[in-house]
Each structure stands twice: as structure tokens, then as C-alpha cells.
Amino acid sequence: MLIKFKSKASGDVIMLGESGKEMLRLLGKDADDSKGVFTADQLPDAIATLKQAIAVDKALPHPHQMDKPIDSKDDAGDSVHLYQRAVPVLELMERSQQENTYVTWGV
């Protein structure tokens, strides 16, 4: 399942189901809702929440950073962290806020 975040202010952000649901839970939305909206009035709080989550996640020691040398050839560098998935959604929300419009999500 895919979750697509959309806005008139920018291109779509498409996430795989579990990543998208994690993003919705983080932003205080019901992850089981197949569609919904962040109104222009809700965007400042959603943006602040995402920025805080990104900062916290970046500050965490990630296992591959602690256990593996940088030049390791295994798949340790392939994991995608919360902050990496959140940045495109954050940018979409910031552009939407600048244009005073909303962000929707759906399947």
C-alpha cells in the first residue's frame, strides 16, 4: 500500500504504507484513515513536530554508524532513517504553508 501526500504548492510525496503510517502517527493523525487533510491552520504545528522529530532522530546513534566502518561494503548504509523520510514531507508542508494551502493524504 502507498500513501500519497499532496498539495497544490508542490509535487506529491509518495511513501510505502508503513512509513506513511508512521509519519501520520507522528503528526497526530489516525494512521488507519485512508485519506485526510492537514489544513493551513494545522500546518505550523505539523511542521514544528516534524522539525523536532528530525532533530531527535539525527541526534540518535544509529547502529550502522556505531558498529561498522564507513567503507564497509555490506548493506549497513542502506537503512533509511526517520529524518530521511520526513524531510520531503516537511518541505511539502513548508511550501504549502507559504502558499496558505492545505496538504492531503490518501491511498
TrEMBL record:
Pfam families: DUF1840 (PF08895). InterPro entries: DUF1840 (IPR014991). This is DUF1840 domain-containing protein. It comes from Candidatus Propionivibrio dominans.
